[in-house]
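Work Package 3 (structural annotation) set out to generate three-dimensional models for the target panel prioritized at the project kickoff. During this period the team completed the workflow that converts sequence records into discrete structure tokens, so that structures can be stored uniformly alongside our sequence database. As a representative example, we reproduce one entry of 108 residues exactly as it appears in the project archive.
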Amino acid sequence: MARTHNMLAIVIGLAVLVVANPARADAIDGEWCLASRHLAINGPNILTPGGNRIVGNYDRHGFSYVVPVNEEGAGTEVVMVLLNEENVRLTRGPEAAPEIWKRCKPTS
């Protein structure tokens, strides 16, 4: 009887491993670049392209913030959406064309 319970536990354990989704590192956190521009996201904190450290609205796959007063486009809302591990779509205000930013240091 004990042997049957052990085998059942092993089978259930293996089934859980097979069915469980692997952990994914797909998050918007990190350093992003477009030409000579750079920004860095760490949770709700961002280092803006203008060099300001501010707090924005963080979601694992998205981020938004309002451009600080001492930067070009002050008061404009910037919205970023993670497209995949290496690309973010960034939009500055409702009328601007989206930009595709890339990770400054690609992940493996």
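The helical segments are 2-19.
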